[in-house]
Amino acid sequence: MKTKLGLLYGGKSAEHDVSLQTALAVIKALDLEKFDIYPIYITKEGSWVKGPQLTGPVENVKSLTLSAEASMSPFAMQSAGQVSKEDGDEGFDCLFPLLHGPNGEDGTVQGLLELLNLPYVGNGVLASSAGMDKVIMKNIFAQAGLPQVKYTWFIRSEWEKDKASAYDKIEAELGYPCFVKPANLGSSVGISKCVNREELETAFVEAFQFDRKIIVEEGVVAREIELGVLGNDHPKCSVAGEIIAKKDFYDYKAKYEDGDTAMVIPADISEDNYQSLNEMAISAFKSLDCSGLVRADFFLTKEGKMYINEVNTMPGFTPFSMFPLLWKHTGVDYPQLIETLVSLAQERYEEKQKIKYSF
Ligand SMILES: Nc1ncnc2c1ncn2[C@@H]1O[C@H](COP(=O)(O)OP(=O)(O)O)[C@@H](O)[C@H]1O
Ligand SMILES: [Mg+2]
């Protein structure tokens, strides 16, 4: 029996184009003997378009951007999978949301798929939404006893009422340098590093353009080490990798435009450090009740102090992204990684079907 797999890509998100690249690479890697693949494109405006089954390799991303004229209601996803119109065609065996950022990685799409009772790859509603909000994520990590840099947060209306005390609080509790970030975004958008009050003021204005809530963190001088986690109830870690930014920090431009960063895999760290990061990554995964995958990102200082920075519930997923490369070095190549994620999705779905809804 082949697996009928729907790939969700594009999305109403700043990371739309990255998602297209990912979809192209995933399609290329999937074994057509094992999978029937259906493209489901979400336009930048948020329309859902299902394309015909892919019977061969796709040449370029252009052929993946389907026309919104044929769009459907997202609620039609269940019947959209019933392509043969025969009795017993239960629709998609699995959906793979290859979506990053808000409207895809934040629990919204996951919630839709839950309502439709469709199996899907990756994190559920709770882990996705908690992982998207840096304040909620850090509060949960704090509760799990994970070491983090000092942080505080502000709501826009609070700050508008009394800006000076917001800045005073930061200077008293965190000092400079500090990092100002929108709470619900990724890809370094809206993030600033500040070394004085003037920069802090500018950074607040900038970050509040992207969210009504912002987080401010103590800045550390540290190496950036990342681990991949894969699994459901018994997650496993990959080897560690290091991001070396040639810029002051790993900003949007460095990430996507300049290629001004290098990845070192495996990272040159001690076995003891690796063991600690491994435990922290698993603890972070469990604390957010993750499933499928996350990439856990850490700071490692010269003095050997380790802090968790964040987890990404749908990390960059092209074959040249950190997460797939970490697993490649751990012995799981890209096609195997995709197949493992689909199996994990089905395992979690089966598990969920055991739940009783009446008593
Ligand atoms: N507290 C901090 N101290 C030092 N550098 C930081 C700090 N927070 C963020 N950075 C730098 O900014 C980058 C982006 O921040 P991050 O919190 O990872 O946001 P995003 O979710 O956009 O990836 C990090 O990879 C790191 O280079
Ligand atoms: Mg990051």
Characteristics:
single chain; 359 residues; alpha+beta; Rossmann fold; Dna Ligase, domain 1; D-amino Acid Aminotransferase, Chain A, domain 1; 5-stranded mixed sheet; 5-stranded antiparallel sheet; binds adenosine-5'-diphosphate; binds magnesium ion; nucleotide-binding; manganese; D-Ala_lig_Van_CS
How is this structure best described in words?
The structure is a single chain. With 359 residues, this protein is of the alpha+beta class. It folds into 3 domains: 3-120, Rossmann fold, CATH 3.40.50.20; 150-218, ATP-grasp fold, A domain (Dna Ligase, domain 1), CATH 3.30.1490.20; 221-351, ATP-grasp fold, B domain (D-amino Acid Aminotransferase, Chain A, domain 1, 2-Layer Sandwich). The protein has helices at 16-29, 77-80, 108-115, 125-132, 134-143, 156-161, 163-173, 197-208, 252-257, 271-287, 322-330, 334-353; strands at 3-10, 35-42, 48-50, 71-72, 94-97, 151-155, 178-182, 192-194, 213-218, 223-231, 236-245, 261-264, 292-300, 306-312. A 5-stranded mixed sheet has the order 4-3-2-1-5. A hairpin with a 4-residue loop joins strand 10 (223-231) and strand 11 (236-245). The longest helix has 20 residues, at 334-353. The chain starts with a strand and ends in a 6-residue tail after the last helix. The mean pLDDT is 93. It binds adenosine-5'-diphosphate and magnesium ion (MG). Adenosine-5'-diphosphate (ADP) is lined by residues 149, 179, 181, 186-188, 191, 217, 219-220, 224, 245, 249-250, 297, 309-310.
